[in-house]
Specification:
Helices cover about 85% and strands about 0% of the residues. By secondary structure, it is mainly alpha-helical. The chain has one domain: Up-down Bundle (F1FO ATP Synthase), CATH 1.20.20.10.
């Protein structure tokens, strides 16, 4: 089933190639798109888990000791910003794979 799903992208992408060109360009483009999608998906899951864990810990800490809510909130916000930077790095990697791929010259000449 997975082979059928992945091969359909190649078939539809191959229709856009003028006759006579190789499929290297299509395979490279599909691989870059899949890599960009995986980078964003894994980066978003990592950021979501980090932010959820930070919020969970902060809520439990404030519940145990409400007097230090200010310090806990400050630390939680800094931790959430650090976790969100993972998603931003994943976005940068995805954009590089799609628009400024450094491996393009090796595969496409």
């Amino acid at each position: 089933m997975a082979a059928l799903l992945f091969s359909s992208q190649l078939v539809y992408a191959a229709e856009a190639i003028p006759g006579g060109e190789s499929y290297t360009k299509v395979l490279f483009a599909v691989g870059a798109m899949l890599g960009a999608g995986l980078a964003m998906g894994i980066g978003a899951v990592g950021a979501g888990l980090g932010i959820g864990t930070a919020t969970n810990g902060a809520c439990q800490a404030v519940g145990r000791n409400p007097g230090v809510q200010g310090k806990i909130m400050m630390t939680m916000l800094i931790g959430m910003a650090m976790a969100e930077s993972i998603a931003i790095y994943a976005l940068v990697v995805a954009l590089v794979l799609l628009f400024a791929n450094p491996f393009m010259r090796y595969f496409l000449g």
